[in-house]
Write a structure and sequence with these properties.
By secondary structure, the chain is of the alpha/beta class. Helix content is 34%, strand content 26%. Helix 6 links the parallel strand 7 and strand 8. Helix 2 packs parallel to helix 4.
Length: 172
């Protein structure tokens, strides 16, 4: 499957597909019966991952990264220094808005496919902004390289660390 959408495989003779709603619909699965459950998960700041077995919707899983205890103080410090914070995420708009609201982030770029993260960074730079990008995953590596300053978490992937100009020793 295309990167960032989902995965399909065979488990004990059954075809199991796991991914975002769009991916399951592309596979011909009717995800409508679980849309309201997925939306509730998103409103709580979780990413909704749909599960289908043998072409029928079977469940929805909520996955959420916990917000670190130091995040509020870090964001406050950045704002006090005049830094505009932009959330760049592949998550659904509802999830992104819920997390951004909790963190007081007003500028959001959501539903960004992994290969498009660097395009967003490039467009911000072309608009005259100086961009520092922080990330930790394989999907962040091109955006880290495209930023004026790429900041990787030492707990992240090797490719993110190699792509960034700065690596923080811890994930904090």
């Amino acid at each position: 499957s295309p990167v960032g959408k989902g995965v399909i495989g065979r488990v004990e003779g059954n075809v199991v597909a796991i991914g975002n709603r769009r991916y399951l619909v592309e596979l011909g699965v009717d995800a409508t019966p679980l849309d309201s459950d997925a939306e509730r998960l998103r409103e709580d700041g979780a990413t909704a991952i749909f599960v289908a077995i043998d072409g029928r919707i079977s469940g929805v899983i909520g996955i959420a990264d916990p917000i670190k205890a130091t995040t509020d103080a870090a964001l406050k410090s950045l704002r006090e220094d005049g830094v505009d914070v932009v959330m760049l995420t592949g998550d659904n708009w509802t999830t992104a808005r819920a997390v951004a609201k909790r963190l007081g982030i007003g500028e959001i770029e959501a539903e960004i496919l992994p290969e498009d993260k660097s395009k967003v960074v490039t467009s911000l730079r072309e608009a005259g902004r100086i961009v520092a990008m922080a990330g930790d995953g394989v999907n962040d590596a091109p955006a880290l390289a495209a930023a004026d300053v790429g900041i990787a978490m030492g707990t992240g992937t090797d490719v993110a660390i190699e792509s960034a100009g700065v690596t923080l020793l811890k994930g904090d």
